[in-house]
Design goal:
The protein is an alpha+beta fold and about 350 residues long. The chain contains nine helices and 20 strands. It is about 35% helix and about 25% strand. Helix 6 packs across helix 7.
Length: about 350
């Protein structure tokens, strides 16, 4: 649970606890999975879950405190634990939650500390992400084998959602399915019939609170020489960036390296090179132009160069989830050889 780091942070910042509401990604992180109820208090002595008597969660490392009369029991709890100054995950707080905290505590924004703490993944976290990636690969394989059934981009998106549920997971974000000229829009909303040309499929699932993210670009029909060359260029850039990624490398440097590899085509690369993956689909490290993040050992992140040419209508993106562990590992295993399909 990384309580030693929490204790050091609390001592350094002269705080009595970190308070997390149940909708916060950091709540999911410390709880060890999804749970829709309660408040977490991380103090210098222990970790507490303050929860309704309707729930009986069993979480190793936590002391569960059940309230009967919320106001009275909450006031008694914070008085007993001497909690007055707290750190909070500010970016996830609702207005009413801020008002609640103001009523009881002096609050300090601990978002940067919490997001940084989550970058290096434990073995249990890695295993959950690995399972999510394996299921993503399985669903992608099913898309290919069932492709004749699809008429629209929406058909594929719905198939991904159904397959996710059938594999006891949830989608980690709304799938992106974009064919033909639609592929030049990085976050296209699928609403068209499948069209000749490149087909981008960006998908991921959530397994026990942890996510995967993968993009593959297919071709509907037969690609021309220039199209095949562009695909192989994007793939080559992705492979070189994966090879270059290592602990203690500044994320900004990795992004700049990808831009250099694009050369004269850099103007068609319109987003960051990647992002961390964990209990959120976008977390540290951010791999982009102005990123201040540094890649750390144990980090899990994506590498996803893309090419989007509005004039020619060509859009290509290739993305994998990468583990920077004892050995660097590509967790999403689906083939990146250009698959050509009939429509």
């Amino acid at each position: 649970m990384k309580l030693p780091e929490i204790k050091r942070y609390l001592a350094r910042e002269k705080l009595d606890a970190i308070v997390l509401f149940n909708k916060s990604s950091s709540f999911t992180y410390f709880f060890g999975g999804d749970f829709e109820h309660g408040l977490i208090f991380l103090t210098r002595k222990a970790a507490f879950l303050f929860v309704s008597p309707l729930h009986e969660p069993k979480i190793p490392g936590f002391k569960v405190i059940r309230w009967n009369k919320f106001k009275e029991d909450f006031a008694a709890f914070i008085k007993k634990q001497r909690i007055k100054r707290v750190g909070v995950d500010n970016h996830s707080l609702l207005v009413r939650q801020k008002a609640f905290l103001k009523k009881y505590f002096k609050a300090k924004d601990a978002t940067k500390f919490l997001s940084g703490l989550r970058q290096a993944k434990s073995e249990d976290e890695i295993q959950r992400i690995r399972v999510a990636c394996n299921i993503t690969d399985k669903i992608f394989s099913s898309i290919i084998s069932n492709f004749g059934k699809f008429k629209t981009e929406g058909d594929i998106a719905r198939f991904i959602k159904i397959q996710s549920l059938e594999n006891d997971t949830y989608i980690s974000f709304e799938p992106i399915v974009a064919s033909g000229r639609n592929a030049v829009v990085p976050h296209h909303d699928q609403d068209s019939r499948l069209k000749k040309g490149f087909l981008i499929i960006d998908m991921g699932v959530k397994y026990k609170g942890y996510m995967s993210d993968m993009t593959r670009t297919l071709y509907l029909g037969k690609p021309g020489k220039k199209e095949a060359e562009l695909y192989n260029k994007v793939l080559g850039i992705q492979e070189k960036c994966i090879k270059k990624a290592k602990p203690n490398l500044r994320a900004e440097r990795l992004y700049n390296y990808s831009v250099k590899l694009f050369g004269s085509d850099a103007k068609y690369f319109v987003h960051g090179l990647g992002h961390g993956v964990g209990v959120e689909i976008h977390e540290n490290p951010s791999i982009g132009l102005k990123s201040k993040d540094v890649l750390s050992k144990g980090a899990v992140f994506t590498i996803e160069p893309g090419y989007y040419n509005q004039k020619t209508g060509i859009g290509i993106r290739i993305e994998d989830t990468i583990l920077l562990g004892k050995k660097k590992e590509i967790l999403t295993k689906s083939t990146k050889k250009l698959i050509c399909l009939k429509i």
